[in-house]
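cron nightly-structures :: item 1 of 1
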Amino acid sequence: MGTHIYLIRHGEAVANVENILAGMRSDTGLTPLGVTQAERLRDRLAATGEIAADALIASTLPRAMQTAEIIAPALGLDIIPDDDVQELRPGEADGLRLGEYIERYGPFRDFREEPYHPLAPGGDSWGSFVTRVGDALHRIARGYDGRTVVVVCHGGVVDASLLIGLGMAAIAPAVGQFRTHNTSITEWERGLLSPTARTQRWRLIRYNDDLHVRDIGATERILWTGMSSLHPEGEPAAPLPTEENG
């Protein structure tokens, strides 16, 4: 049986709307819309029971903790805070608006060209950020081997998980961009994913599942009751010969 890790991005944050580089000092949590998004996710999880989690982990940044606090009743779990699944840390730029950052530090450096240059003094570089996220995900997978974990985190953490889990070049951001939606669900399975596999691998089950927010502003709500499984799983596809050897 594989280990399932559900990564949930926080709801819309005040910092997102106001274009603030928000770390622990300046993160003021969710907007009213962000609260509604998290409540819709809570209602979905409570009605469907689609995630039977053994643990609920959350980034210690307020926007993620607030999201976790809203959905926790649907999972029936206490929150385990984890600093290592925080967003890319802004260091001395914490609290600056984008224009203020550029005025103080100059234009944003291209992490593809300078992956080890920190965003600001005391902050993360791309390389240190991806290393931190990779360490955290592997630690969580080992600690909850064969079980199911929900991790409330950030768009950057989900982006990094895609690079790490899919074996892409994690030393720099992808040339194309991911667009991870607020309160969306990304599901990973880690384990021996074929009968002939010799090593554990990550399998991406779903990405950017935000169906629960599609009825915000609509005249009718999505009726979740009775939807016990939104993505029934059949047998995995037969592995290619190359997959059997790696």
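cron nightly-structures :: done
The domain at 3-244 is CATH 3.40.50.1240 (Rossmann fold).
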